[in-house]
Amino acid sequence: MRAIPKKMTGAVLPGNSTVEFKTFKVPEPGERQVLVAMKASSICGSDIRAIYREHLSKGPEAYQGVIAGHEPDGGHAPYVLAEEEDCVPLPEPLTYVDGAYMACGFGTAWECLTRMQLSGRDRLLVTGLGPVGLAAAQLGRLLGVTEVIGLDVAPGRLKVARQLTYKKGIRLVDHVLPFDDNSLRAIQDLTGGTGCEASIDCSGVAAARLLALKGTRQWGRCGFVGEGGKIEFDVSPFLIHEQITLFGSWVTSRKHLSDLAEVLARMDVHPEATGGPQLPLAQAAKAYDLADKGQTGKVCIVF
């Protein structure tokens, strides 16, 4: 067993699109707390939107100048203090990076898709092919969807989505489309004019949210998980008359995260397969810059 040092270096986000390093005391666990040696800590979209670029938020996303790492839980340092009740087992053969992704975007996508009762009867429409959108595509496959249609505006993300596979011979996203004025027509053409039985917006952009709703089949289900922004639409023609059930979903619970870990391990499905660059803590500035540009899969800091 290695000796635990007294001090450590952690990444701090000043709020001006830069990263600084400061020295911190290694925390000492109290009653029902655990000191965790970090192995992988991914960068969340909320880290970028509400902390890295500028300090925007209050409440759960508020940043108080402490160690960065997921809004911030302090994962961007060699050690982090956790409450015992918050620890979820990571079963083999899952990797530490799998675990980091599960605790961020994959948990969010899993919560929404399972609430929508996604299954093999469904085709899935995903608007926004960033880390959460790719997670939704992989988990949709896991839950048995027969076809995945995905859209984004970023050329880098479209390229990544076209390259990824779910299993050998099975593309992660069957149809990768650019988001433009012809997107709805393209979705209708691919689905025989009906739209998909289930859709999920992972972008938080009003136009993409509306496209997810319009691209949903009558009596279908649509989920919104992308943070921020506003949306305005005619409720009667797009929601009520189409008999669509609209879900708003935010993150997940410890119980459901544990369920996800068990299913992923049993099915030998790895969230890491959807990911982007993995960089050491010393390159945290580069990691945040890549995440901010939004042209890759999920960026992860590894130890």
Task: Please name the defining characteristics of this protein.
303 residues; alpha/beta; Rossmann fold; 2 domains; 6-stranded parallel beta sheet; 3-stranded mixed beta sheet; 15 strands
What is the fold's blueprint, element by element?
Blueprint: E1 7-12, E2 20-25, E3 33-37, E4 40-42, H1 45-52, E5 79-83, H2 96-115, E6 123-127, H3 131-142, E7 147-152, H4 155-163, E8 165-167, E9 170-171, E10 175-178, H5 183-190, E11 196-201, H6 206-214, E12 216-224, H7 235-240, E13 245-248, H8 254-267, E14 278-280, H9 284-293, E15 300-302
Parallel strand pairs: 6-7, 6-11, 7-10, 11-12, 12-13, 14-15
Antiparallel strand pairs: 1-2, 3-5, 4-15, 8-9
Helix pairs in contact: 2-3, 2-8
Explained architecture:
This protein is of the alpha/beta class and 303 residues long. The chain has two domains: 7-87 and 270-302, Medium-chain alcohol dehydrogenases, catalytic domain (Quinone Oxidoreductase, Chain A, domain 1, Alpha-Beta Complex), CATH 3.90.180.10; 115-248, NAD(P)-binding Rossmann-like Domain (Rossmann fold, 3-Layer(aba) Sandwich). Helix content is 32%, strand content 23%. It has nine helices and 15 strands. The protein has a six-stranded parallel β-sheet, with helices on both faces. It has a three-stranded mixed β-sheet with strand order 4-15-14. A two-stranded antiparallel ribbon has the order 1-2. Helix 2 (96-115) crosses helix 3 (131-142) and helix 2 packs across helix 8 (254-267). The protein is globular. The two termini are 17 Å apart.
